[in-house]
Amino acid sequence: MTTRIAVVGVGALGRHHARILNGLPDVELVAVADPHEENGRRVAEQQGTEWVADFADLPEDLDGVSIAVPTTYHLAVASVFLGRGVPVMVEKPIALNVAEAERLVRLADETGTLLQVGHVERFNPATAAMKQAVGEAKYVRAERLAPYSFRSTDIGVTHDLMIHDVDLVLDLVGYSPVCRVEAFGVSVFGRSDDVVQARIEFENGCIADVTSSRCHPSAKRAMQIWSTTGVVNVDFTTREVVRHSPSAQLVHGPSPLDLAAKPGADVASLKDRIIGEFIEVHETTAEPADALTAELGEFVHCIRTGAEPTVDGRRALAAMRVVEAVQASVENHAWNGRADGPVGPHAVFTDLLRAAG
Questions:
Q1: Which CATH architecture has domain 3-120+291-309?
Q2: H helices of the chain, where?
Q3: Which one of 7, 36, 37, 331 has the fewest beta carbons within 10 angstroms of its own beta carbon?
């Protein structure tokens, strides 16, 4: 049976949604909707489908819709289809703010309609390998750094990049409630936060330090997780996962310290034996796979079977609540060291440099 899907918004990311969906088995890309005629027509021609300027003109008999419009319009577009009972896959973040996200989740619940949110890092093969290697997470350090792309300028870096790692951390801690958030950030280009550092503490005792920047000289997507089984380092770009864990010899003794304390101990030799003999190293490189293809494939599967998506509206809303708390902390941070708060609504980097120089 053919699944009929349309794509709303075929810009830098949406055009890939159209291409991938058009190539999935038994999927018909019915049309693409985009107000920019040149771009919309080009993508439609490439995929052999129809173009409409207004998503309201899409056919009524759709089995699903993939939405990749700017975040500002997520609520307006997604609510129309959810209200009609059409399954929706909307790019992250789910909406512009928590209040809008709550409206979408509520509408999906009221209509009993599938709502999937595009937290694509969940489908990175390195993520699955990471989860297999990690025990109960106790401390997480995440870095997501990227050069400025001139995309997603309607939201700050917390909603643009940091939300990926917040979503991953929430999954690692089993959605333990957040008990404390501290953050600071700077707006390099003057509209919203572009660099943010946050510390998030959870009721289960885990602490996460999360750094995001969208004006970094080079790209980096990495995470380190300290858990009950050791420490795991993940590179989401290269898909490399490395776990260091205590060996059976270290756990059951004698320890290197005990051995070093013995008369005539060869300490130099012990140093060389630490990694390998006492600390085991497990290295894995996950098989390459396109995360967006896997994500959209899951959307189609959920439409056909009624299965629950990896990131539904409620999980996406949980991530939104955390990043909104991070953003509030950024805006309340006293850069000037006084209780009257930050320098302006966001601490602007250029102003800080002028003040310092």
A1: 3-Layer(aba) Sandwich (3.40)
A2: 14-23, 37-47, 74-83, 98-111, 125-133, 157, 163-172, 248-252, 256-260, 267-273, 291-305, 313-332, 349-356
A3: 37
Sites in the chain below the pLDDT cut of 70: 151-153, 190, 334-357
pLDDT at site 341: 44
The residue assigned the tokens 């060291």 is 337
Q: What is the pLDDT of residues 265-309, one digit of tens each?
A: 888 888 888 898 889 999 999 999 999 999 999 999 999 999 999
Answer whether 181's CB lies under 8 Å from 208's CB.
Answer: no
Domain with CATH 3.40.50.720 in the chain: 3-120+291-309
Single-letter residue type at 186:
V
Q: Helices 291-305 and 14-23 meet at what angle, rounded to 10?
A: 60
- d(C-alpha 311, C-alpha 297), whole Å: 13
Q: Which amino acid is at 220?
A: K
Tokens 């660099």 correspond to 195
Residues 300, 305, 311, 312: what is their CA dihedral angle, to the nearest 10 degrees?
A: 110
Cα gap 222→174, rounded to integer Å: 20
Q: Which of 311, 331, 328, 330 is nearest to 319 (CA)?
A: 311
CB count within 10 Å of CB 282 equals: 12
2: Cβ contacts below 8 Å, ≥ 6 apart = 26, 27, 28
Partners of residue 326 on adjacent β-strands: none
Look up the pTM and report it: 0.90
Report residue 157 CA to chain centroid gap. 12
Neighbours of 116 (CB within 10 A): 27
Nearest to 118 by CA among 144, 78, 95, 89: 89
Round to whole Å and give the CA distance between 66 and 68.
7
Q: Is the Cα dihedral 269, 272, 273, 279 positive or negative?
A: positive
